[in-house]
Amino acid sequence: MDLTLITESVPKILSGIGITFQLMLLSAILGLILAVILLLMRLSGKWYLSWPAQIHIYIFRGTPILVQIFIIYYGLPQFEFVRDSIFWPILREPFGCAVVALTLNTGAYVCEILRGGVLGVDHGILEAGSALGLSAQQKFIYLTTPIAARIALPAYSNDFISLMKATSLASTITLMDMTGIARTIVAQTFAPYEIFISLAIIYMILTWVIQKTFGRIEKYLSHYVNP
Amino acid sequence: MTDTLIKMQNVDKFFGDFQALKNINLEVKRGERIVICGPSGSGKSTLIRCINRLEKHNNGHIFIAGKELTDQVKDIDAVRREVGMVFQSFNLFPHMTIVKNLMLAQRLVRKIKKPEAHKTAMHFLERVKIAEQADKYPVQLSGGQQQRVAIARALCMKPEIILFDEPTSALDPEMINEVLEVMTDLAKEGMTMICVTHEMGFARSVADRIIFMDEGEIVEEAVPEEFFDNPKNERTKQFLSQILTH
Amino acid sequence: MEAVDGWWDDYFWGSMIVLQVFFFSLILMVIFGLIGAAAKLSDNVVAQKIAGAYTIIFRGTPEILVILLLYFGSAITLTAIVQIFSPDTKFVDVPPLWAGTIAIALIVGSYATETFRGAFLGVKEGSIEAARALGMSDLQTFIYVRIPEMWRLALPPFGNHMLSLIKDTALISIIGLNETFFVAKQAIGTTGEPFTMYIVVGGIYLAFSSIVTLSVMGMEKFGARTGEGAR
Known about the structure:
The complex is a heterotrimer. By secondary structure, chain A is mainly alpha-helical. Chain A has helices at 3-14, 17-43, 47-62, 65-75, 80-84, 88-91, 94-119, 123-131, 136-166, 178-189, 192-221. Chain A has a domain at 20-174: MetI-like (MetI-like fold), CATH 1.10.3720.10. Chain A is flat. By secondary structure, chain B is of the alpha/beta class. In chain B, strands 6-7-8-3-9-10 form a six-stranded mixed sheet, sandwiched between helices. In chain B, helix 3 (98-108) packs parallel to helix 5 and helix 5 (143-156) packs parallel to helix 6. Chain C has a domain at 33-177: MetI-like fold (Orthogonal Bundle). Chain C has helices at residues 8-41, 45-60, 63-85, 96-122, 125-133, 138-168, 180-191, 194-230. In chain C, helix 2 (45-60) packs across helix 4, helix 5 (125-133) packs antiparallel against helix 6 and helix 7 packs antiparallel against helix 8 (194-230). Chain C starts with 7 loop residues before the first helix and ends with a helix. The interface between A and B is medium-sized, with 22 and 30 residues.
């Protein structure tokens, strides 16, 4: 173990944490929005909305995220209409491509998680809402959403951690996130143990922080289960 | 305003191939107290669930205060406002405090302002003798207390009629009486009610009419004395002998 | 899609490598998962701690990092050892296929540890007590009551673990495994059609994960049927 190498490298690696955070938070927010849209499409009961949502989920959960990143970053520029489109400024950059891929991917997973939450809401509670004269929208907003959110939260927190870990794949399309920087250092120094283990510890700390944060939110949302 | 609050004419209800209701004819007048009994699976719950359209009937007509329940009724919620319902498993909103459970529909459906909704809620909580629990969550209450809250929640909407779907079946024996007491009080005050229950003591003392159902049909319909002391139908006799021996 | 003509056989052999990795990593994953679960359920504090560290490390680290560390770490260690005997050696590595197989088995095994542990604890004590009350021996109770019930509980998450293994195979291409990704890269070099070539890769993986999903659904149905028969 070369300790000076570690003390020299860790600050360099940490300089990429900003990119890791940007990828994670942007994709998480956009992915959640996408997930809600996909969920509403699935629950609409109309086949022309429900099918596209289901196909999206099937494809993005059934293929490796690495393939999705490569298709978007290396694949799409094959077409002239993509290069001419208004999306080109986003799709030209590895960062934009990584966000698009991570969003499409996490949106598919989160949609299924939210759906699990919605299906987990006791049917009797919704009937009680109907019997009191609440409209379908009112039931969805005031009954289904808060109860489903609590049910879905533990699974959502796991998906958030998966998303955080998946940001490291952005390094495969030349992005200098923490993993990208670490791989460059390893290529120069050929000291995989020192660099990669340091990096792994940083990711584990991030995982821990995410878990604790979601634990707090869960406790807050569950106040009515264990008051 | 007619004297007849609920009218069911030749109502059929199917679940797939299974016929849950067969040619139901029933009329309930304002202020009347009806008890429906019968073996499990006889269609009694389905009947009252058709009245506030938690189930759609397939044939026949149902009128609530003169308005017919059809797919054309654009605002089914308007009918539901007049029909309160109390469920076997209480179905309180678990994520809201007791008082908020009572205020939600007042505010969303009746468009009542917050202070007034709160006042109404506390008034009915006092009536079911549970006002001190107003700020607790449903899980903190016993089953009997939760069911009393559910009754108060229905009352807050000032309904014309309340439907009770086996309100004491999910309760521990020692809690049944506190709920029946509240229901008896309501009956005395003249509330129109239809109650599916196995509590024959309650039926005898409170009901104006008892309806016995079996296999989706109304088999017998009589005032309590006649129903218990002199049942006409064989199936009623058999049911009563089973239920009264233990 | 004409561009793909001439590359189908390469894709086929690439797919076979995916299957090979899947097969071996599946076996290893089950072994790691069972050992991890047994350690967590044991009374031995040291074993519990080691298993706890195992799940924390492999669930908290990105998959690609585990693969890189295992491959380059083992390579540098191996090279150092070989250089003692023949100083001229430049680089010796554990073949990417094996480094990658072990890496993804370790990762998914850490998730399987929790699945197996949860399934063991999820069996209702009532069923176990009932079996004991009927006079069944410990072994009989384990075989006839606990195992079938655990199987039923573990199957849905286990299906997800298998999907993870299939999809994680793609990551091994980063350390040079010549599976479908590698084929696509070569094909792009000559045809200049990256979209087409990566779509084929996606299609192959989608086919594999569909097969896994369908088999798990089939097994779940079978499990539900025996469950009903037992009632």
